[in-house]
């Protein structure tokens, strides 16, 4: 890379970091954090994420009401539920944006998420994709991935250095995975909506998250893009744990393949859990959500 490009890259990285902390700071309540040294999550028991009796109130209104949820290591879990059920609030709790009034949340068996800051939670391997894609429109697809890679704590030292062969390989593999290899040099702003979503997922993957939280990832996508996104998520399953919040039942059906567990949230609690067919046949679920 030329010095000019390196300087431009460093500036973009600074913007990226400032933007992330701005996004993260926009929660309605400030978490009260202790100083906790956090190591690697311990997944020996097979559980990646464990929420127990999580309650969040906004001016007396319970957005989450004793919510319990366990996600296994490598599991792909779809979460569905009507508007206002608490899906976003749940993700806010997991990522440290909102601090609950009560309950416990752990990553692996050893990391108490409620004592960590948002940045720390991202650094220990929880990545979140918001509904709207936020890529650097003026940079190429490749540069977007490069910046994401260099935002990783393990690569900070190499911010001003050339990409190593290993890093180039990682970017190449990710480009292939997100179906954007032919678009590597294309300006991200010229991509379709679906391609931008994939690029942002690729940017998250550059940081090798253990758990990925994806909020309505196929909203606004074409049918073909939706199918490709399902393929992408299925290829990530096993290597990462994925929590996907979606309203698109066809997509949920493609992801769950007839056998995986779906969780239905309603009024801040789990209303039902089971296969998609199970929950679609559940009278309570039909009444509050699917039948409308
Ligand atoms: N900062 C807040 N202040 C007051 N009420 C809030 C706040 N954030 C969320 N709520 C309320 O909490 C409830 C749960 O909201 P949440 O956004 O978590 O639902 P959701 O399941 O993600 O809905 P959607 O499918 O529409 O995204 C809603 O009734 C919402 O109005």
UniProtKB/TrEMBL annotation:
Gene Ontology annotations for the cellular component aspect, listed alphabetically: plasma membrane
Keyword Acetylation: no
Annotated keywords: ATP-binding, Nucleotide-binding, Transport
GO terms, molecular function: ATP binding; ATP hydrolysis activity
Domain ABC transporter stretches: 49-292
Domain of life: Bacteria
Pfam family, one: ABC_tran
PROSITE patterns linked: ABC_TRANSPORTER_2
CDD domains to which the protein is assigned, alphabetical: ABC_Mj1267_LivG_branched
Matches recorded under NCBIfam families: urea_trans_UrtD (TIGR03411)
Protein known as: Urea ABC transporter ATP-binding protein
Species for this entry: Vitreoscilla filiformis
Higher taxonomy: Bacteria, Pseudomonadati, Pseudomonadota, Betaproteobacteria, Neisseriales
